Each structure stands twice: as structure tokens, then as C-alpha cells.
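Explain this fold:

***
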Amino acid sequence: MLTRSGMKAKYERLYANGIMYLAKDEPELAIKYFEGAAMQLKEYVQGLCDEEQDEMRDWLLEMVAHVRELEKYIKLKSKRSSSVKVQSDEKFAFDKSEIPNVSFSDVIGLDEVKSQIYDKILYPRRYKELYKKFNKKVGGGILLYGPPGNGKTMIAKAIANETESTFFSIKFSDLGSKWFGETEGKIKALFDEARKEESAVIFFDEIDSIASKRNNDTIANRMVAELLTQLDGINRSSGNVTVIAATNRPDILDRAIIRPGRFDEKIYVPLPDMQTRQLMFEKHLNGIPCQITSYVRLANNTEGFSGAEIEYVCEKAKQSVIRSIIAGAPENTNITEADIMRAISGVRVA
């Protein structure tokens, strides 16, 4: 005879398995596990005494919500044609794109960052025999960290481009769920879908919201545990999936995530230096009506700016000139240094 805590744990396990099989589009197996979970819940609540009615009510309400979710799934599946994706699959669908049209030539500066990425990801793919000759270990993920707005997402897309990989861009909202077991099912479904690709890059944006240090939050703890399991599975696989993560807060990540073999390569993505800021201005103002005598001056006046802020400065200056032409200025009015300097003063944070 199971103890009450054992009954509760068994119920949770059965329900989690049901969610997993929903993610794999195996409804028959999912229903069996849900039925088992319902029976286990019934046994559990029958063992509660009168003083624990509140707990019994909470568990019954949770099971009712679970059954409604399952009923919704079954109804939608029965209505669909064989060529249409089921709703449950859509629940586990992810932001997937074909090979991104972004290369390392689009990433301005960051030469040291690019060098580390070549060592970690690109060279092992291009020179497999050489790495095998030296028995050099490969695999593991990359953690990109540093101030926001400096190209971490662009770098991840460039990696997908260079490795000719399908790109999965994942945020917390893609994985989080209030239902027990569903988050783990989504994480597993994500990695299963990536493994089906000839080559794939999974990019976790703001991974600190997904894999922060474990505490008393059981949902967060289960999410981290499942992510660790999948990362370990990737490292034992054929190597067609590359996992990259980005964060502005590496200090709050769970230590197990960043140990060797998982996100073992930690690459700092800094604010743009003087030369990089100059190149950024040249890129964003290239090919438009513009009279700039010194990009160096613009770079000097944007120390501490992120790449995103420099792009915004240029967009703000463009809008200012467009507005003046609409108001009656000559059609051949150009963007000048004065326009850029006014935009800089408008976005600089004291």
C-alpha cells in the first residue's frame, strides 16, 4: 500500500507521462496515462481526513482542469483532416526558421568572439579528421553573455548560417506552463524536433529566465532538470544539434547548466569599441543621402553605447530629416553630423 505522499508522487508521474505522449502525438498512450493519473488521484483524495478538505478540493480542481485540456485535445483531433496539424502539436510548436540570412560578415567587430566560435563550433565540423586525429573533445553548448543590445542573437543566427542549420529561437514564453509536466514535455519536444533536422541550432534567448538557480519553485526546478537531461542527450548524439544561449545575467544561472559538457564555453560579448562604433555608423548610414565628414567624432561621442543604441541613433536622425522634408525642406536635404549629434543627445542615459 502506497503512502499518501507516494500516491501523490505516482499521480504526478503518470500525468507527466501523459503530457509527454501528447507532445509526441501518441494520444492513445497519453489517454492511458491520464486515466491512470485520475485513478491514482481518486485513491489519494479518498485517504484524506476531514481536516484536509481544502487540499482535497485543490487537487480535484486541478484534475478537472487536466481532464478539460485532454477533452479539448481529443475534440480538435477528431475534427481535423489528416493534412492539418493537431492543436496539441501546435501547443508544442516552436519558432523555427530556415537557415538565417545572416553571416559573420554582418557582425561588425567582435573578432575575439568570432575566433572562439570558430574554435568551438565551426572548425570541428570543417576539420573532423584533424580533431579525430588529436582525439579532441567536441560538443557542449555556448553561452553568450554581456550587456544587452550587442549582437548576441545576430551571432547565434550567423552560427546557424555558417553551419547551414535550421534555427530554433526559444524564449521562456515558449516553454513555461502552469500545467504539471507540460513544460518538460515542451522541452523534450523541442529537442526531438531539432534532432529531426539535418543540422539545427537551438538558441535560448534570456536563458536566465529558463535556467536560474534552483530553489523552492518546483516548476522551475523541473524545467532545469529536463533541460539538463536534454543537453546531456545532445552531447551523446551525432552532433547535428548545436545549443546556444544568451543572457545579461550569468550570475543567476544554475551552476549545473554551466558546468563542462553543457554550456561550458562562456563567451563575453562586450560593448562596441571605438573602431567598431565607427564602422557601425558607416554601415547604418551607407547608401542614403548623408553628409558626414568625420565618423570618428560620432564614435567618440557614443562611448558606452550598445550596438542597438547606435542603430537607434541613426534611425532617429533619419526620421528627423524626413520630418523636415515633409515640413517643406528641400528634397535633397542630407543627414548631417548635427542631426546625428542631436539624436545622440536624445538617447544617452545619464
